[in-house]
Each structure stands twice: as structure tokens, then as C-alpha cells.
Write a structure and sequence with these properties.
A 3-stranded antiparallel sheet has the order 2-1-3. The protein starts with a helix and ends in a 10-residue tail after the last helix. The longest helix is centred in the last third of the chain and has 25 residues. Strand 1 and strand 2 form a beta hairpin. It has one domain. With 102 residues, it is an alpha+beta fold. The chain is 48% helix and 25% strand.
Length: 102
């Protein structure tokens, strides 16, 4: 089983930066949400692992995007995620309605 520490180590090793912004997936009210964000400063590994543990125990937590479970979720749902992000960007740009469809 993948642990919080192993997910964190993988993020830190692959980042190449002193900080990271990681996404995590929640499942609430019968729908998944991918827009949740956690900021990590790699100067304090213990504090970052503590933050990640707290998030992983929060109501509705499903997976960190950087975990194996998260990667499988993204791979399985990549078309729907792409459409959702496309619509979000275009709506924020002032286009209003859903433009990106199946």
C-alpha cells in the first residue's frame, strides 16, 4: 500500500523546486472534485507530511493526484476532466455557457 510518506517523497524528488502545489480529489454529494490544492514548502518535510495526513483524513478525501490511485483516476477520467477544465477556463474568460462538449 502506498503511504503518505512515499507519495510525499515522490512529489519532492520529481518537483525539482523548493515548493510544490499538489492537487487532491474529493468525493462529496455523489460527485468527484479535482480542484482542491495543498501548498508544500520542502524546507520542512515533517510539517508537509503532517499536512498531507490531515488532508487525507478529511471528509470526502479520495486521493492525491500524485498517488497511484489518483493517477488511475486521472487516466480513467481524462476526457471528462479535460472538458470540465476547458469549460471552466472559457467561462472565466467570459464565454458564459458550456462550450466544450463530448
Amino acid at each position: 500500500m502506498e503511504t503518505i510518506k512515499s507519495i510525499y517523497r515522490n512529489i519532492k524528488v520529481t518537483s525539482g523546486l523548493p515548493v510544490a502545489i499538489i492537487k487532491f480529489i474529493t468525493y462529496k454529494n455523489n460527485k468527484y472534485e479535482l480542484g482542491n490544492t495543498l501548498f508544500l514548502n520542502f524546507h520542512d518535510d515533517g510539517e508537509n507530511i503532517k499536512k498531507m495526513r490531515l488532508v487525507s483524513k478529511s471528509d470526502g478525501f479520495y486521493a492525491f493526484v500524485n498517488s497511484k490511485k489518483g493517477e488511475k483516476f486521472i487516466e480513467k477520467n481524462k476526457e471528462a476532466i479535460s472538458r470540465a477544465y476547458c469549460n471552466m477556463v472559457l467561462q472565466n474568460a467570459g464565454y458564459g455557457k458550456k462550450i466544450c462538449k463530448n
